[in-house]
Amino acid sequence: MPANKPPAAEVRFSGPGCYRIEIEGPLGASWSGRFGDMRVSSPRSKRGSAVTVLEGRVKDQAELAGILNALHQLHLPLLAVERIEERTSAREDMAD
């Protein structure tokens, strides 16, 4: 490993993590209950099309897979899945 590159943070599949998931298409905030603690928002994309963002903490990879499967069953195109830092989670946003 190069000396100037810090080691990657360890990702444990059996533990919790915070994620940001972007899908193409509208999905109202009323859907947030189906996706656990994920916050649902709908910013507009640069092209003006509807994009929905789910952001928050999941218990483990099994819960993440369940969320992704639910989105697949809704036939919503997946644009991005990103593991994010704990400090940007939906829970802390709600505490502000």
Description:
The protein has helices at residues 61-73, 90-95, and strands at residues 17-24, 39-41, 51-58, 78-84. Residues 88-96 have low confidence and may be disordered. Helix content is 20%, strand content 27%. It has 2 helices and 4 strands, in the order βββαβα. It is an alpha+beta fold. The chain is globular and about 35 Å long. A 4-stranded antiparallel β-sheet has the order 2-3-1-4, with helices on one face. The chain has a single domain, classed as 2-Layer Sandwich (Alpha-Beta Plaits).
CATH topology: Alpha-Beta Plaits
Q: In this structure, how is the largest beta sheet organized?
A: 4 strands, antiparallel
How many β strands by DSSP?
Answer: 4
The CATH class is identified as Alpha Beta
Element order: H for helix, E for strand: EEEHEH
C-alpha Rg, in Å? 15 Å
Low-confidence stretches: 88-96
**Helix share bin:** 10-25%
Count of all domains? 1
Q: Give the DSSP E fraction (strand runs of 2 or more residues).
A: 25-35%
Strand order of the largest sheet: 2-3-1-4
Chain-averaged pLDDT: 78
